[in-house]
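cache lookup: miss for this entity combination. No prior model stored, computing from scratch. Input as submitted by user K.M.:
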Amino acid sequence: MEEEIRPLPKFDYFSPHSLHDLSTLLKQLKGGISFLAGGTDLLVNMKKRITIPKVIIDINRIQELSFIEKRSNNIHVGSVTRLNNLIESSIVQENVPLLTEAIRFLASHPIRNRATIGGNLCTASPAADAAPPLLALNASVKLKSPDDEKIVPLSEFFVGPRQTVRKHNEILTEIIIPCEKGSNAFMKLGRRRGFTLSVVSVAAFGIIKGDKFEDIRIALGGVAPTPIRAYKIEEMLKGVEVSDRSIEKAAEIAKSISKPSKRAKRASVEYREAMARVLTKRVLMKIAFEERG
Amino acid sequence: MYQDYLGEVKKLLHGKDYKVVGKNVIRVDAIEKVTGRAKYTTDFIIENALIVRAVRSPYPHALIKKINKKPAFKIPGVVAVIIGDDIPGENQCGYYLDDQPLIATDKVRYIGDIVALVVAKDKESAWAGADAVEVKYEELPAVFDPKEALKGDFKIHNRKSPGDVKVIKGDVEQAFKECDVIVENIYKPGSQDHAYLETEAAIAIPEAQDGILVISTNQGPFRTRNAVARVLGKPQSQVRVITPYIGGGFGGKDTYGPIISSLAAVAAEITRQPAMIVHTRYDSFVYHFKRCPFEIRFKSGATKDGKLKAIEVDYLCDCGGYAAHVIGLLKRAAYHSTGVYEIPNCNVQGIAVYTNNLPVAAFNGFGNPQMLFAVESQMDLLAEKLNIDPVEFRLKNALVPGSRTGTNQLLDHSVGIKELISKVAKKADWVKKRSKQKRWQSETKKRGIGIGCSWHGCGTTGFKHDWAGASVILNPDGSVTYSTGIVEIGQGTITSHAMMVAETLGIPYEWVKVELNDTSRMPDSGETHAQRGAFIGGTAAVDAALKLRKKLNKLASEILKCDEDEITIEDGIAYSLNDASKKISFNDLVREMYQRGISPAEYGFIKARRGYPDPDTGQGDPYAAYTFGCTIAEVEIDIETGEVNVLRLYPGVAAGKILQPDVVRGQINGCAMLGLGYSLTEVVERENGKMVNPSFTDYLIPTIMDKPEIAEFISVEDEYKYSGYGAKGVGEIAFIATPLAVANAVYDAIGVRFYDLPISAEKVYFALKRK
Amino acid sequence: MKIKFQLNGQPVEAEAPIDETLLDFLRNRLRITSVKKGCDLGECGTCTVLLNGKPVRSCLLLAVQIDGEDVTTIEGLSKDDNLNPIQEAFVKEYGFQCGFCTPGMILTTKALLDKNPDPSIEDIKIAFEGNLCRCTGYDQIIESVLRAAKLIKR
């Protein structure tokens, strides 16, 4: 049920300027913490009382969290990088264009001026558009707590709708995306053309050698409690000839692995499953077409 | 009483072209709006105004057993808790019927019915106070399906229906026997939220002499004043309503304006302090009243030569917990149920039914989008059966001067629909695009083209009054002060009034200043709805200006020593047509008026030239004039996803004189998009009568990305002689035609007809799957 | 919390409660009522301000977050009645009706044209995707932006 819009609740506010200050702060505080990045979800959730933080830690002033760099064969993106900065980044466009394509129509331009890539992942909406491309690209995330740091593959990051493995005293500091040469395709279906949440989205990365799919990685949003990698499709297509039949078969698998929540609003289970099929087919056809010219 | 204003104005101009009317001028409100200085209700920030928060029923139907105010007073900022019994005057705010208490006392009839008001020093306390008030309810069986409500015994009120309507003409039974084709279907056009960007709000301030000032989002300052006076038990003279700029109305603030104003007024009256109430977007979506859902059984018949013979229509309007606006829209739908066609035999019966849904509001089209959706779908179905092109079929039956409507009203002039249909069809290249052979399509995409025709009576429906005033004051320096009872809700009407006043007086448009809308300046002028802003309100402006112009002409002829008929006034100079050297400036002329003791101020007052149809037969003249519309839509459908992409819209209107072409274009394109939302994406999802998708993320109004190409509108200027400059209303007409054209185009593309709106992608997908 | 920031080119020092959005702060404390509250959830665009030149939603920012930053509202575009070319274009092309979305639309135009002086219709649509208008049907807004671009180039 949609919640009423109320005045913001009371909270304590901290705005550390470095990761070091943040660590110090996290050691002192005892739970009830929300990190404020873009704020485009957090403030909404606070007004609706979905989130009532005792403490807000504004991480926008931590310069160390805002960067886009290529190191060896990986792209590293700081978690507080704004979506529009990512879209405009030539490093991202050249190395991981699938990400650019997917977030280009996420929410709206002014929202993307504030919303961050880390925020989009930590919110863990089943419909978050940034997740499927990053899953298909084998991205991982770095989680940092005051006394530990670990790298988690994105495929293990989401555990449920609006739930991730991130602990309350951990902060997602960066996203690591391996660069690979291949073809990309992203498609989303919303309920109107502009400023729309995805009902279903599909992202795929693929390499075709000769007439065969050499490697395909495909991920879907909106068809399960979390964004999912479609390993079944990937295995089925590996080494298989590119044809209408193989693509159709892959699309059918997409439909069969889709398990949208019955409580999910905005579209019926049956429609989501059907659209998983249609979009998977279209995404694969685009890759096949691009790779073979 | 009914003057040929068009003829009089033309006579004054001696056959010359208009200098102002029909041109594009800088809108009266332009500079304020582009600089951000334009003030809307909540921009009137009153220091220390108390905040009002309503306590609303969580049950759709329940008895109120007990209300405990005390816990709210534990919140430090809470100043007052007001229940129905505390209301100083009459606890009543029904629009047409006295069936709606402002604050419910004995029972609640929809989720959101107001049971108490908490008045507090700040927002946080008001919210906390509203949460704290304890209300004990005893739930009653609730009903959300109007048919069930009609059959069952839910006792929402002491009667099941707040009203009904009939239009009976000719012999329908016999006529159907003579028909070669008959089509009968059930249509269920749904609800729609106005989704204006400014939510509802009101500020009330106690004034001197025990009066009260209300500043609020409303489309009917006088109705608002009268409503406030009623709940406060004051004479209407003690209540002053100022209506600032309104951030979109579309009818919604016509219905809800008096209610929200009364809430603020009661709080201010009881606390004797300024009080304000502002709806959040959630409140606006969930609690303000919306478009009425219809269920229509529509049977129509024609002979094989393509002539319409008869219609038989039964329909049900689900009005929710209170009658609010339903009586008017129920009647309007019946009186337009023939569509723009001459049909000799009609049997139309409509009834409104109480349910425990949210009540319904006025909304652009006022029942006509719903009824005409059925009418125009039927037209295409009949045309198909008759194997006649839909445009040709419409042309064969369209109203012409001399035609009689379903209510037997004789339309003697100003009936431009036939010419309009031909012109729009030509512009859209209908014949070529309709041809199936040449049409572009692919494996996954199919295209189609469809037409929809609409009409909309100008002014309120013939069962209540329709009048308006205006005043013009000539100041000693020649500048002009103009006041109107019509509200600027974005439509640009006050600019058109200023233009007509300037044209009539013979002065530049810039010399006319339009005053802030204030009920203390003007006699009751009705509401800004029903396409009456320019049509009735504007004619009142012309009436006032004409009175002054006649005085000016007479005075000029005396000063210039020539015949009154020789005088003309142009660009602020009065001169003789026979001898241009005989001239006097407008300001000198006005100063002379003052010198000679001739009153330089006039009121205009107009009553619509129409009747009151017979309640048993619906026969009579419910409207003074009708505006006509015709839209053609081209669509492309993705048959795998079901998405309907409207590629192009070709709108057209026969709305009499177009006073401001670019402003009218804005009205038409805006209407087209409002109609597009109703056609494709806007669904009020309800659980127990309560909207459950109350946000712009889930209630999908068209964004700039959803905008199709909209062709330059076609206009047939079928002037109406009893209005200022021959104008008819234009605010609602283009809306009505859009969904009709889209639905018919969808059918043309994929051969699936939808009997309800909107036509969402998911619906199309499943329909195609079933096919 | 005391904050210092640039507002329309002028330094401002003010006390901002930490639980107040920038929107409420601008409207209620600084009396800048051109910034409108249409939804309070970032979905409508009427509360648009420029933060360091970029359009953002003031309803989704805390006032304390603008400490040290540069904020522009529509008041920063023109002095007295000397309209900025963008405002002039909106007047001439009838790019407004009820006017409630207009300050947001004009600020969005400003940010777009500062970055892209010669936008295509597609560029305009992307920039304005988050600014809802219920009155105009958007055509005259697009035409206003195109005219503004021409006026500025001249």
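stored under new cache key. Chain A touches chain B at residues 1-7, 189, 191-197, 265-268, 270-271, 274-275, 278 (CB under 8 Å).
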